Amino acid sequence: MNERSLPQPAAPLTGYTVVDLSSGIAGAYCTKLLADGGAHVIKVESPSGDPLRRWSASGAVIPPDSDGALFSFLSGSKHSVVADPDVGDDVEMLRKLLASADAVIWSAGSKVADFQAFTPTAIREVHPHLTVTSITPFGLEGPWRDRAATEFTLQAWSGGIVGLGRGEADRAPIFIGGQVGHYLAGAYASVATLTSWLRGLGGELIDLSILESQILGLTYYPVTYFEMLGRPWRDARRRTIPGVAQAKDGLVDLGCGTAQQWFDLCAMVGHPEWIDEESPLSITELANVYAADIYAWVAATPVDEIRDLATAFRIPNAPVANGANISSLDHFQERGSFVRNPRDGFLQPGHPYRMFPAQLREPGSAPRLGQHTARYRCAEMAPRPAPNAAKARNRLPFSGLRVLDMTTFWAGPCCTHYLAMLGADVIHVESTRRPDGTRLIAGIPVTEDAWWEKSPIFAALNTNKRGLTLDLQGPRGRELLRSLVATADVVVENFTPRVLDQIGLDFAAVQSINPSAVMVRMPGFGLDGPWRDNPAFAYAIESAAGLSWLTGYADRTPYEPYSIGDPNAGVHALNAVLLALEHRRRTGAGVLVEAAMVDAAANVAAEQVVEYSAYGALLERAGNRGPTAAPQNLYLSADTDEFGRLDSWVAIAVETDEQWASLCGALGKPSWAIDPALAEVAGRRAGHDLIDEHLAAWCADRSGDDIVATLWDAGVPVAKVMQPHRQTELEQLSFRGFFEAVDHPVNGRARLSTVPMRFSAGPGVFHTQPAPLLGQHNHELLAELGASAEEIDDLEADGVIGRAPTMYTAS
Known about the structure:
GO molecular function: CoA-transferase activity
Helix content: 25-40%
CATH topology of the domain at 630-716: formyl-coa transferase, domain 3
Mean pLDDT: 94
Keywords: Transferase
Structural class: alpha/beta
Shape: globular
Largest sheet: 7 strands, mixed
Radius of gyration: 26 Å
Number of strands: 24
Distance between the termini: 48 Å
InterPro entries: CoA-transferase_III_domain, CoA-Trfase_fam_III, CoA-Trfase_III_dom3_sf, CoA-Trfase_III_dom_1_sf
Protein name: CoA transferase
CATH superfamily of the domain at 630-716: formyl-coa transferase, domain 3
């Protein structure tokens, strides 16, 4: 019998039923991830259908008997049921569906979801066995619960628009193009739903905030950074050097995330004399000093030559992909990263992660509106049993799970951090030769005592974990690592593939030690393909996946988002971990997960390749304008910011004609605003420049608070563009307890962000222990492996373990 004829394992969520009462991208993406995992997803729509069926970011005309391409991508393998809550038979059908399901994904905005009997709390009261995951802009409770919001205004509230200095000093800052925050929220909603399932207690209510998802994905722990170091991460807009640059024959992205990469860039462009290891300037400041020379070299050199040199020098690099060219790039072609939509034939990204021997469901066709209504109207649906009330409701979801965390920087640690905050025993492995990279990027002088313990990023990413140092260059450290693998349920690493090859710890080796272990590998570009061994920082991933292309001013080269690539990879890897654990629970077998950062990024940028392939439309960046709202822009207020600059902005976005009417009323119905041509979205798009001119004048002599109060009370989506380190000032976040104060033995007390959802079954507090000091738990963990005190002392004396860096390295 050959391999192809062997029976394939069922997808991990086979038999798990989800009723989808959501509309919009966040809920659709959540249920897509669940359907990919094998769940049976029943999408309940009002008679008019989900608005995504009529959506095209390019404005393509969708025929009445067809669906928008993005809807087809997000809705593969789902069923569609049409229900009108004004019809008694439909209400009864929905009640039977809910009684027979395992989970519900809910968001407001449809006739069904807004019906009183089908709100999250009402569903939970009648069907206590259900996990109900609610996705809303700010959360179900709190002072902002009913406030209007869009992707754009949420990015402003999060601090993600200005948090990493995106834009030019003499222009408005720049938002991240597309709808990345809603995709992030969808990925987190899937994680939350799977967490509840794996908890095994029966139903609960999960209250997810899109704003909090954006804070975790679009900003880099700015509150902790500010409270520990007394300064913001960045206080001005400036281009990342080199970043996305114009080469001789196209755009290329080059990055310097570490000092070593800066030294290598100097050598690559022919200026080794720029290397000054004693310079008081940061690498960012040095890059700005020599920016003109760097850009001149790039402009005179072809893209392929630049990328070949950068790869040889181990400098992160990528082509700048867009909807037109991404599917033709050699790496994606060799890996089969894009597939044909099974119903409509356009190209779409494949799965955001891969696994073996567990299998994800192959993309299926999206349903036509109401295609399965008759089936469920007549079906016999057995209700699920009531939850076992005797089970302890305060049991953490991942109690008893042991995770060997061999990750560094942001993507890997944020994946394992979620597991640690929800009860897993996470052992974070570093070495004294190469500590976690986040320990090295805080700008603390190496002359300070315990400088490596003073990184706000490390402190924010690693609470509740135990810390172990092991020198993996030698046989004794590797043998101890293998002993740890034998005790672990999950092993996670995010090095380039060659690193684990050198250590000799691939999946076959893990299986030989621990056949039931889940191994999660998080390479930047995947375990195969021509870019396999390229170093991957967030910015290179963002450009390679198309996220950079949509971000920036229309008349300038793009900006990398410089944030989302890592946490987006982390939350997608987390989805894969939970699916792999469910496969292991059902079969007893271990799983290899390949969670390539670029595959996750390509999924949240999917609209670009989908639109180009389906309609021939190349989506373009347009500053702070976008296809979901008109007007949509940033407007300067009269406030002076905390740095003494007239640089305080508000975000306004009008998505509907009703919101436009409300805006006109809030402005006092000036003659320009009540022009009938502006009453519909096409007219507002045509008159966007005029609208911007008038709104800018109206905002210019008002404070941000006054603008927000006037427009928000009228129901218009609006936000102050927050400095991210001031997130704690948002009363909604305080109400939900999003930040928790943690005492650190070196750094004192600081507030740390938690998770973007609240579980009705707990926990109520997420941070129970501060991030570990370097090697803090060496003796404890090695003693658990059976090592005597004398043996542990010998390991420390020989440098196999340690409590301080043996040499300063940023490579």
